[in-house]
Amino acid sequence: MRTQPTRLPGVLIIEPRIFSDERGFFKESFSVERYKAVAGIDSLFVQDNQSCSKSSVLRGLHFQKTKPQGKLISVTRGSIFDVVVDIDPSSSTFGEYIGLELSQSNHRQLWVAPGYAHGFCVLSAQADVSYKCTDYYQADDEGGLAWDCPRLAIDWPIKNPILSAKDRAHPGLEQFLQR
Which residues are catalytic? Predict the structure, then answer.
Protein backbone atom coordinates (compact mmCIF):
# COMPACT_ATOMS: atom_id res chain seq x y z
CA MET A 1 0.00 0.00 0.00
CA ARG A 2 1.21 3.46 -0.86
CA THR A 3 0.04 6.81 0.46
CA GLN A 4 0.36 10.22 -1.07
CA PRO A 5 -0.27 13.39 0.93
CA THR A 6 -2.26 16.22 -0.65
CA ARG A 7 -1.94 19.94 -0.06
CA LEU A 8 -4.81 19.69 2.45
CA PRO A 9 -3.56 18.56 5.88
CA GLY A 10 -4.99 15.17 6.85
CA VAL A 11 -6.20 14.29 3.35
CA LEU A 12 -4.38 11.33 1.78
CA ILE A 13 -4.58 9.40 -1.47
CA ILE A 14 -4.21 5.70 -0.72
CA GLU A 15 -3.27 3.10 -3.30
CA PRO A 16 -3.88 -0.42 -1.97
CA ARG A 17 -1.75 -3.26 -3.26
CA ILE A 18 -3.55 -5.15 -6.05
CA PHE A 19 -2.95 -8.83 -6.78
CA SER A 20 -4.14 -9.59 -10.32
CA ASP A 21 -4.17 -12.76 -12.40
CA GLU A 22 -6.34 -14.42 -15.05
CA ARG A 23 -9.17 -14.77 -12.51
CA GLY A 24 -9.39 -11.06 -11.70
CA PHE A 25 -7.91 -9.27 -8.70
CA PHE A 26 -7.71 -9.25 -4.92
CA LYS A 27 -7.07 -6.27 -2.67
CA GLU A 28 -7.19 -5.59 1.02
CA SER A 29 -9.52 -2.57 1.20
CA PHE A 30 -8.95 -1.92 4.90
CA SER A 31 -6.86 -3.26 7.78
CA VAL A 32 -6.68 -1.44 11.11
CA GLU A 33 -3.01 -2.33 11.64
CA ARG A 34 -1.82 -1.53 8.11
CA TYR A 35 -3.75 1.73 7.75
CA LYS A 36 -2.45 2.91 11.11
CA ALA A 37 1.17 1.92 10.38
CA VAL A 38 1.36 3.09 6.76
CA ALA A 39 -1.17 5.93 6.55
CA GLY A 40 -1.33 7.07 10.18
CA ILE A 41 -5.09 6.48 10.29
CA ASP A 42 -5.85 5.36 13.81
CA SER A 43 -9.50 6.40 13.86
CA LEU A 44 -12.25 4.05 14.87
CA PHE A 45 -14.80 3.60 12.09
CA VAL A 46 -18.36 3.40 13.41
CA GLN A 47 -20.48 3.56 10.26
CA ASP A 48 -20.19 2.32 6.67
CA ASN A 49 -22.19 3.99 3.91
CA GLN A 50 -22.75 3.14 0.26
CA SER A 51 -24.34 5.11 -2.54
CA CYS A 52 -25.28 4.18 -6.08
CA SER A 53 -25.67 7.04 -8.53
CA LYS A 54 -26.16 7.45 -12.25
CA SER A 55 -24.08 9.51 -14.64
CA SER A 56 -23.83 13.26 -13.95
CA VAL A 57 -25.19 13.02 -10.40
CA LEU A 58 -23.39 15.39 -8.05
CA ARG A 59 -23.62 14.70 -4.32
CA GLY A 60 -22.33 17.36 -1.96
CA LEU A 61 -20.60 19.22 -0.72
CA HIS A 62 -21.49 17.81 2.73
CA PHE A 63 -20.12 18.02 6.27
CA GLN A 64 -21.21 17.61 9.89
CA LYS A 65 -21.12 20.90 11.81
CA THR A 66 -20.20 19.93 15.37
CA LYS A 67 -19.39 16.23 15.11
CA PRO A 68 -17.22 16.03 11.97
CA GLN A 69 -16.68 12.68 10.31
CA GLY A 70 -13.43 11.32 8.96
CA LYS A 71 -14.11 9.29 5.81
CA LEU A 72 -12.29 6.57 3.90
CA ILE A 73 -13.78 6.69 0.41
CA SER A 74 -13.65 3.96 -2.25
CA VAL A 75 -15.36 3.26 -5.56
CA THR A 76 -16.40 -0.33 -6.19
CA ARG A 77 -18.06 0.26 -9.58
CA GLY A 78 -17.59 3.04 -12.11
CA SER A 79 -15.74 6.30 -11.58
CA ILE A 80 -16.22 9.60 -9.80
CA PHE A 81 -14.55 12.97 -9.50
CA ASP A 82 -14.11 13.35 -5.75
CA VAL A 83 -13.73 16.76 -4.09
CA VAL A 84 -12.60 17.79 -0.61
CA VAL A 85 -12.79 21.42 0.58
CA ASP A 86 -11.10 22.97 3.62
CA ILE A 87 -13.88 24.77 5.52
CA ASP A 88 -11.87 25.79 8.60
CA PRO A 89 -11.43 29.60 8.55
CA SER A 90 -8.39 29.32 10.86
CA SER A 91 -6.60 26.94 8.47
CA SER A 92 -3.85 28.12 6.11
CA THR A 93 -5.63 26.20 3.33
CA PHE A 94 -9.15 27.54 4.06
CA GLY A 95 -11.23 27.65 0.87
CA GLU A 96 -8.83 25.40 -1.05
CA TYR A 97 -9.92 22.11 -2.55
CA ILE A 98 -8.52 19.00 -4.12
CA GLY A 99 -10.27 17.00 -6.80
CA LEU A 100 -9.29 13.63 -8.20
CA GLU A 101 -10.72 10.62 -9.96
CA LEU A 102 -11.50 7.54 -7.91
CA SER A 103 -12.55 4.48 -9.85
CA GLN A 104 -12.91 0.74 -9.80
CA SER A 105 -9.99 0.53 -12.20
CA ASN A 106 -7.50 2.79 -10.40
CA HIS A 107 -8.45 1.33 -6.96
CA ARG A 108 -7.53 4.58 -5.23
CA GLN A 109 -9.00 5.45 -1.88
CA LEU A 110 -9.22 8.85 -0.29
CA TRP A 111 -8.80 9.46 3.43
CA VAL A 112 -10.54 12.67 4.48
CA ALA A 113 -9.76 13.70 8.05
CA PRO A 114 -12.64 15.14 10.10
CA GLY A 115 -13.51 18.76 9.42
CA TYR A 116 -13.68 18.97 5.63
CA ALA A 117 -16.59 19.31 3.20
CA HIS A 118 -16.84 16.41 0.76
CA GLY A 119 -18.69 15.67 -2.46
CA PHE A 120 -18.39 13.93 -5.79
CA CYS A 121 -19.85 13.73 -9.27
CA VAL A 122 -20.33 10.56 -11.29
CA LEU A 123 -18.24 10.23 -14.47
CA SER A 124 -19.35 6.74 -15.55
CA ALA A 125 -22.81 5.42 -16.48
CA GLN A 126 -23.24 4.41 -12.85
CA ALA A 127 -21.03 4.46 -9.76
CA ASP A 128 -21.08 2.66 -6.44
CA VAL A 129 -19.25 4.59 -3.72
CA SER A 130 -18.54 3.28 -0.25
CA TYR A 131 -17.17 5.18 2.68
CA LYS A 132 -16.23 4.31 6.20
CA CYS A 133 -17.01 7.06 8.74
CA THR A 134 -15.45 7.90 12.11
CA ASP A 135 -18.67 9.30 13.57
CA TYR A 136 -22.36 8.71 13.11
CA TYR A 137 -24.41 10.76 10.67
CA GLN A 138 -26.79 13.08 12.48
CA ALA A 139 -29.43 14.84 10.39
CA ASP A 140 -29.68 17.79 12.79
CA ASP A 141 -25.91 18.37 12.51
CA GLU A 142 -25.56 18.23 8.74
CA GLY A 143 -24.22 21.13 6.74
CA GLY A 144 -23.62 21.84 3.10
CA LEU A 145 -21.53 24.01 0.85
CA ALA A 146 -22.63 25.15 -2.61
CA TRP A 147 -21.07 22.93 -5.25
CA ASP A 148 -20.79 25.97 -7.55
CA CYS A 149 -19.54 28.52 -4.99
CA PRO A 150 -17.67 31.19 -7.01
CA ARG A 151 -15.08 31.60 -4.25
CA LEU A 152 -14.11 27.93 -4.67
CA ALA A 153 -14.26 27.84 -8.47
CA ILE A 154 -14.18 24.04 -8.48
CA ASP A 155 -13.39 22.74 -11.95
CA TRP A 156 -16.06 20.02 -12.05
CA PRO A 157 -15.73 17.77 -15.13
CA ILE A 158 -19.51 17.88 -15.72
CA LYS A 159 -21.37 21.08 -16.59
CA ASN A 160 -25.04 20.31 -15.84
CA PRO A 161 -25.09 18.04 -12.80
CA ILE A 162 -28.14 16.27 -11.43
CA LEU A 163 -28.59 17.59 -7.88
CA SER A 164 -30.96 17.01 -4.99
CA ALA A 165 -33.10 19.98 -3.93
CA LYS A 166 -31.07 20.13 -0.69
CA ASP A 167 -27.73 20.25 -2.56
CA ARG A 168 -29.02 23.04 -4.84
CA ALA A 169 -29.80 25.22 -1.79
CA HIS A 170 -26.49 25.10 0.12
CA PRO A 171 -24.82 28.47 0.88
CA GLY A 172 -21.32 29.39 -0.24
CA LEU A 173 -18.03 29.70 1.61
CA GLU A 174 -19.16 32.98 3.23
CA GLN A 175 -21.12 30.94 5.80
CA PHE A 176 -17.83 30.14 7.54
CA LEU A 177 -16.72 33.78 7.68
CA GLN A 178 -19.84 34.95 9.54
CA ARG A 179 -19.19 33.00 12.73
Answer: 62, 131
